[in-house]
Amino acid sequence: MTTPIVDPLVAPIAADLVTCLTAEAAKIPNPPASPRVVCLRPGDRVELLISQNDDECCSGLMWVRWVRSYPSGQQAFPIADDRATPCGVTRWAVQFELGAVRCAPTADPEVLPPCDEWTDTTLGVYDDGAAIRRAICCYAASHEYDATVLQEEGQPLTTEGGCVGVAYLTTISGPACDCQGAPTL
To answer: Per the structure, how many domains does the chain have?
Structure first.
């Protein structure tokens, strides 16, 4: 049996972010009390309501999504560093999106949702954002000596399929590639 290849740069950072996000999600006081789904998501955006039989949005969904990575030396972080080195790069900057969605109040044909429902949902989205910010701080505290963490902007997500939410970007300084065993030209 062949040992699977696991990305040595993005995967460990993403796994640690999910661990921190899961812990912080459990502290969210507004409904849903804590998101039922906290996981990694691939792609250039997170598709909401992709399941035909389960509503992750209304159950509460939080995710960590890899956005991009680029060479960035320790002195230049988080600026891209395009200087060539014999073995590639000295460090990588790895950017992630941490996001959360929940159900928006739903109108029926006769009545719009009352302000109280919108207020509860809005405060819940704010709590989701606070949990994401704490998760980024959790990651930074647990990697204090080996990574630089840049907490970036957070923005509300466009309402999609009855879901509302928030997403934050964070860029983390990761290690250089391990060039041992790489072919030489």
So the answer is: 1
Range of the domain at 97: 10-174
Alpha-carbon distances, residue 43 vs 10, 70, 75, 83, 166 (angstroms): 14, 17, 30, 29, 17
The DSSP code for 49 is: S
Say which residue the tokens 């964070």 belong to. Answer: 170
In the chain, what is the greatest distance between 2 CA atoms, to the nearest angstrom? Answer: 71
Kindly list the distances between the CA atom of residue 26 and the CA atoms of 29, 67, 166, in Å, as whole numbers in the listed order. 8, 25, 17
Burial of 53 (0-12, 13-18, 19+ CB in 10 A): exposed
CA angle 74, 148, 38 (to 5 degrees): 140
Tens digit of each residue's pLDDT (9 = 90 or more) over 61-117: 999 999 999 888 767 788 887 775 656 667 888 999 999 999 888 878 888 888 999
Tokens of 19: 């661990």
Residue 123 lies in a domain: yes
CATH number at residue 110: 3.30.2000
Q: Residue 183 domain-assigned?
A: no
CB 92 within 8 A of CB 174: yes
**Alpha helix positions (H), 7-114:** 10-25, 56-59
